[in-house]
Amino acid sequence: MAKQQPAGSDGAQTVSSALSAPSVAQSQARILAEALPYMQRYSRQTVVVKFGGHAMGDPGLAAAFAQDIVLLKQSGVNPIVVHGGGPQIAGMLQRLQLKSQFVHGLRVTDKPTVEVVEMVLAGLINKDIVTAINRQGGKAVGISGKDANLMIARKITEMPDPESNLMQAVDIGYVGDPAEVNPHIVEVISGSDLIPVVAPLGISRAGETLNINADTFASALAARMKAKRLLLLTDVAGVLDKSKTLIEELSIEEARKLIRDGVITDGMIPKVEGCIEVVEAGVEAVVILDGRVPHCVLLELFTEHGVGTLLGRKMKRAA
Fold first, then answer.
1. Are 186 and 218 spatial neighbours (Cβ–Cβ below 8 Å)?
2. Model confidence pLDDT, tens digit, residues 140-161
3. Angstrom distance (rounded) from CA 243 to CA 263
4. Is residue 2 pLDDT above 50, yes or no?
5. CA distance 89 to 74
6. pLDDT of residue 305
7. Which of 37, 101, 113, 222 is 20 to 30 A from 303, alpha carbon to alpha carbon?
8. In what helix (H) or strand (E) does residue 54 lie, and over which residues does it extend?
């Protein structure tokens, strides 16, 4: 006959075991509790997120991004998603046998090309992102910069020469820069339980559709709305120093010095310069972060150290 355990001993062992070895549920509860101060910091604040790069073509990363955006909305944050689509546009142009060329990093966009750009950005990609967010329990609404004159743009007719940095005339077709931002439609959407997903197209004062760089579009929108944060998802870890180590935080002055000293080079220069302009326009901070990291948006906003490089006015993440 088996020896009986003393009454209540099983319960005591269970309690002791639970105290000595935290369960998965307890770990999850601790993580949520640690995130509480950051959730409170961003409650009812606007966060503009530029979604692009490798993450857009990876189903797992795209699903994780959609979960992040839905959780932000559920936590009281007002996320606004602006997306790119360069690789998808290039693929469609190739399928249609339309040749494409670039001038100083911008796609030359003639009339047939801009029609493809609008079809891919405002149609296929925009609705794919909307669907991904809705599948995670969100309520996303897809629009473009043309809706309600959100983004009035002007054609780009001159650009700085990469070697001399002097302005020179260019003819790159239907490519534009923001001239006027009218955020009413985005404010109405994000002020409800809906999440705006915006394709980076603009409309000229003459009624022409203009293709706008997604970083530039997101920056102009964030600046006009005085967003708490602008997050730029990229295919790099962030800004790196000379030893290729991630620089976690930069002030405007520090960023300008790194450009002068040749630490920030090539394509990162215009990205950082754009970040500086956004901060000077009133956005509290801009973060360049690696979109290849699952849940990078939540890691940046709801943890102590975040991910990527934060650029702001001498501020720290924990401030």
1. no
2. 999 999 999 999 999 999 888 7
3. 10
4. no
5. 32
6. 76
7. 222
8. helix 54-57
Amino acid identity at 256 = R
Q: Is there a contact between 59 and 82 (Cβ–Cβ < 8 Å)?
A: no
Instruction: Tell me the residue ranges of DSSP E strands in 220-304.
Output: 229-234, 249-251, 285-290
In this prediction the pTM is 0.87
Quickly list DSSP for 280-297. Answer: HTT-SEEEEEETTSTTHH
Region of 244 on the Ramachandran plot (φ > 0 left; ψ -120 to 50 alpha; else beta): left
pLDDT tens-digit map of 82-131: 999 988 999 999 999 998 888 877 888 999 999 999 999 999 999 999 99
Assess contact for 269 and 263: CB atoms under 8 A. Answer: no
Beta strands in 108-175 (DSSP E): 140-144, 151-155, 158-160, 167-169
Using pLDDT thresholds of 50, 70 and 90, give the confidence band for residue 10: low
Query: Which residues touch 118 (CB under 8 Å, ≥6 apart)?
Result: 144, 201, 209
